[in-house]
Amino acid sequence: MFAVVSIPDFSLQALLRNEPDLHPHPVALVDPDGSPPVIIQSNAAAKSHGVNEGLTASQAAARCGHLKIKIRSRAQEQSATEILLQTAHAFSPNIESTALGVCTLELKGLGLETGNRAPKWAETLRQAFVKFQLRAKIGIAPTPGLAWLAARRTDPVSIVHSSNEFAADLPLAALDPPAEILEILSRWGIRTVGEFLAPGKDRIAERLGSGVLELFRRVSSDSIRPLKLVSPAEVFCEQVEFEKEVETAAPLLFVLRRLVEQLSRRLEAVHLVVAEFHFQLGLSSGAKYRRTFKIPSPTGNIEVLFRTLQTHLETVQTDSPIVSLQLVATPARPKTHQFGLFESTLRDPNQFAGTLARLSALVGPENAGTPQLMATHKPDSFRMLPPDFDTPAMQNLNSQVRPHGPGLRRFRPPQPAHFEFRAERPVLIRSEAYTGAITRTRGPFFSSGNWWDDQRWAREEWDIETADGPLLRIIRSEDGGFVEGVYD
Amino acid sequence: MTEYVELHCRSAFSFLRGASTPEKLAERAAQLNLPAAALCDRDGVYGAPRFFSRARELGVRPIVGAELTMADGAILPLLVQSRTGYENLCQLLTRVHLRNEKGKFAAHWNELPEFAGGLVALAGSESLLNSSLKVFDRDHLFIEIQRHCLRGEERTVRSLIALAGQHRLPLLATNGVWQATEDERPILDLFTCIRNHTHLDAAGTLLERNSEHHLKSAAPMRELFRDMPEAVENTVRLADRLDFTLESLGYEFPSFPVPPGHSPDSFLREQAFAGARSRYGEIPAKVRRQLENELALIARLNVGGYFLLVWDIVAFCREQNIMAQGRGSAANSTVCFCLGITAVDPLKFNTLFERFLTEGRKNSWPDIDIDLPSGERRERVIQEVYRRHGERGAAMTANVITYRGRSAAREVGKALNLAPDVLNRFSNLYANGDFPHTLDLQTQMEKSGLPKSHARAAAFAMLCQAVHGLPRHLGQHSGGMIICRGKLDKIVPLERAAMPNRVVAQWDKDDCEDLGIIKVDFLGLGMMSVLQDTIELTRKTGREINLTSLPENDLKTFKMVTEADTIGVFQIESRAQMATLPRMQPKNFYDLVIEVAIIRPGPIQGRLMHPYLARRAGRETVEYYHPDLKPVLERTLGVPLFQEQMLQIAMVMANFSGAEAEELRRALSFHRSQERMERITVKLRAAMERKGHPPKIIDEIIKTVGSFALYGFPESHAISFAHLVYASAYLKAHRAPEFFASLLNCQPMGFYSSATLIKDGQRQGVSFRPVCVMQSGWKCAIEADHSVRLGFCVVKTLSRNGAGRLLAERETMPFGSLDDFKRRVRLNQDELRTLAEVGALNCFANHRREALWAVERKLPAGDLFETCPDTTASPLARMKYHERIQADFAGMNLTTGKHPMALLRPQLPEVWRAADLPKAPPGSRVRIAGNVICRQRPGTAKGFAFISLEDETGISNSIVTPPVFEANRLVITEEPFLIIEGRLQNQENVIHIKAEKIQRLDHASLPGTASYDFH
Description:
Shape of chain A: elongated
Oligomer: heterodimer
Helix content of chain A: 25-40%
Strand order of the largest sheet of chain B: 1-2-3-4-5-6-7
Largest interface: A-B, 41 and 47 residues
Number of helices of chain A: 14
Largest sheet of chain A: 6 strands, mixed
């Protein structure tokens, strides 16, 4: 005996699992990789407006003005697949990831062949998915193929006793024939499995080739294929839905600490530690707040793990109250570290990460980290990246040719200054550090960019020499005049 | 010395490497008081004629040049010094373009010496200088230096100065102008992104560092180069040496080889009079007088050779049995009529010869356009012209494809890195056309998910407007050819067209006309093919008709026309035409001429259509702007409908001379220049004021002239078209089977799909038989009982080669069985399945599914002639009726069976059939439904849309107001079947439903045909 769990409209369900409020509304899913992008799945509310697979987004919107069009998410499908396999694995040790949203379970040894236990068992299995917001259909049959077909019927649970009777009315598409075969059969007017079986295996195979025999095998009650057994991925997730909306940090931190403890203990039991936390807050507005915390040095230490999250959470402000919290731990094997004699990597990366997180909270994440130069004409443009502890520092050095001329020591931030211009050239500078007549100038040098959005910038640069001697780079921009640096 | 000449500009005709039009560069140069400027477009002189025209008007001397892409990646700017230099440049560009595939240009240094004469090179880098020194002598080579206020550029400048000293070469300052003004830099950045297939966020240092590549006047250039004033002074010295402009192009039309003892004029005279005798028999005095006048003028203008050349091409068509008919203003010429170039006798219609040719024409040739059957027959004529004049003696004129509406917005959006779904929504809101009336850019942006507050919304709107009309790429004109005595590639660079065996010039037809290059238009008309094919079919069926001797004012034909039963008829089959015919009630040929001319944007926009119809129906009195205009406007009831009448009004009311009338004609015909139109309007107004006409009349006339600038028809052109209208209507009325068969054979053409044509044919009593492998040919044909047998050409997946093998095998021996057919013809499975599905194999089977079952059976291997028939019966059920209809549409996009709406009818008891609408009381609320065959939203309709629905009885039309359209925009544009509810309007037997409610008709899996949208 075999059971198949099928999640109909799997991609859409995977997406709506996190947005249950959308269930009553017409929702359709578009695959952005399609050419052209078309609707691939839609819920019942959308279907009632004629929004079917194959329509373009515009055609669908024409049929249903208030349709919500969602983009297919492979990541969400991946999460749902993990839940599917992990849940199924709890019911049978032998499971197969048969197709997207389909899992086959071998029922041998579960004692379901005899008596009338199968329906109750199947219903329990189905209910197990309900708590994950997944609507599953269960099919039970003597072969994996028939079980799959049974799972594609309209009933939530379907148990096959007689294969011929069961298959006759099944729509042909349930056999998942290759597109070309389906088209030929459709031209022949064949719509059901019964009509397909009627002419006989040999006559059909004579015309459509031996490949079509696979379709016959799928409905045969004595054709049992071996399952390709899989083990579910080791993903550890804990989540809480608050009964009352949370508006302050204290209750959130209380629950969070408990989740961290639980996850840490679960991992400890299988000799693993936390490498990464995926943290998600569900907000009452329906929005989500998500954050990934990479643990610099994977650990199972609850205090270290909790502090990493706590430092960040203390700075988080959400637009609306929090209704749910989800924490997913990515496991790793504990890392042992032998420091080399001349190695300069951090001795305690977690402590450094904690310090950096506190700094980021104070100065903003855009002002802490490792700077990386950006490919733009805007001078000194860089962005902050999280520190990379695994790459030796020497490899970060840029090997590009050094610029001509003397080196420029930049002031960060540039020093405000006032300039006097005569005949469009600067003649006098007044700033905190430099004041006096300008004796020599070179310039102007103009540059500008990002004219297409609110990051637009434009600047006029001069190299000047003052009577006192220093050689300076000065700039004029919308923000005023500045001394940008001094040349060596 | 105080002046500066910019000698290195690139325009938008450098395709994604320049931001400004040539005209704008010229205008900016004039504003900056530059005495001259040089346009050096990349790998061509694409923008040179426009730059020349505008610069000359503004008093700036236009210098010609080009940037050459070298095979080593270097870019070499070249300036033309003399005509020899220009010819060399054109020939060099032609050689490299013709050698490479379209869009790939790579010149070799070793081929430059052959073409270096008369050219000056600019070297802006050491490597460029080293290569150039081997090609150009010291008098023709300059070191080009540029300063753009960039940090680090001074090192390059210093090294170039050192090189100049070392090689004793002069320095030349240029600003490398890629944009006319400073504010056009975003366009340049946008083009950089498009060229590099990236977006602005990722383009980084590919973008311009600042906006300094704009045109500058002498003062800032002197300031930039104050340390080397000679570099600026040299620009003026060099410009003085570059004395070539496009004015001295040296174009000569090819001479026509006349028999010994003849000059072109005498030979033309001989041919014209011979033709007159053949047309009239005894030549009437009036004709003789007109011929003498025209021939004298032709001789004075020295254009006799041109007439002979066109006459010769038309003679070639006649020899090859290819219908050819001159259109346009040539139909005003008795000489053209007598030479057989046109079919219209101008004296019969009193058309205005001056519209065609006047003394005042300077540097401009008469315009003779030839209509030919579209497709292979027209291509034969074009290839004959190439054969006669050589690959480099004739070329198609270019067609400049510009950034417009949807395509512009998409490219701008991609460059701005906007989300694809925003761009898709934006494009979908265009729905196959641009509707500026009810959906402005801002609203469209907001509807697409790009609100005003979006950080990039302003840039999007600005760029969409800025790139609108800028050239995107160069295509070829549909039929315009230019020819030159000697070598055309000395006059204009030639390129390979995307189409095989076609060579295209770098200039479009307006450029060519401006520069006095003669053009002959070989325009393909689907209807010419239909007429020719119909005539051939009538010959085969023994019901031959001669188009030149059709009976005049045939009653049956005009009854059909007045009832707007004109699907398939040339020009008057459109919805707008069909809505006018019952009101117009054409009774004779000249009514058709008016009908052709009146449904045009010009008359509609000028509000001339309704006055004409009202006067014709006697509801309005016939009035004239001025009593003197009665002879001019009498035949159109006082309403000017034709361009010729505009010229005559100008002559009568403003005493315009022939030359001034010619200026007006060119302004009316030249769509590109609003300014040209404004100039002549001012002149016309002043002249009428001088004659003391009241301001009201002057205003009315000026307004009418303005509307004619928008696609007004010349009367002669309307007459030529009316011939085709009458001929096609006559054939539809009297030879319907042959006519419909030909229409189907010439698809795609016209307004309607094959499915609609078949339904119309059936309503006319024509019987259509399905495709059959034992009966059909490639084309639709007429059977003995005058039914139309559909040809293989209507079967979607059947290749021409496959059908050819089928026909050849059948010719050898009829097929004995389906196995015999499969074995001998060897079609692929797709082709066999489609033939079976559409019933074409029913000759071997009891029904379509039996054939489908049989075609899947593999033939036994081994002996080719071995037969092993399938003796077992097919287990498949016969197709139901609606399945057959579906199969027909799936395989052919048409059906000879019932209209799909007939099958839905039982479910639509409240819906009126198209044929029943005349019985509904006007003003009543009705519902109509059907397959959408036409969606239109003409620019002249102020946002109103028109939707035509086809059902099993005919076509019903609805009018959609702008608010209803906006409320249902996506339903209208996306759904193939609609139900429309609204009030019925019946105006002089023209029925429309004024839509109030529009909804999708759930047609389940019934097929819908393609519609003709938004044209």
